[in-house]
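[Q] Does anyone have a clean structure-token version of this?
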Amino acid sequence: MAKTYLLQTIPNDIYILIDSMETAKEMWDEIKKLMIGTDLGIKTKKANILTAYDGFKALPGEALHETYNRFVQLINEMRKIKVVKSNMEMNIRF
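[A] Here you go.
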């Protein structure tokens, strides 16, 4: 029954990848991996975002609002993966 509920509620692109699995547990584990990512993938993403944050600077010829928009996008990506900087840290970086 759990397998049926899982299959009814997931997007088609994920359904195609898991419909042949035998148990709901196998399905659930694969869905988690597909939706969230592996631990290694998450760590790699965090490392890449923190590297981008540490090296953030205005690009040559870039307008202030363009620099700000790139910075806000970077901060939003950091928040998505639970990397939080204080307001003071962000103000100093920008």
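[Q] Thanks! Anything notable?
[A] The two ends are 52 Å apart (CA to CA).
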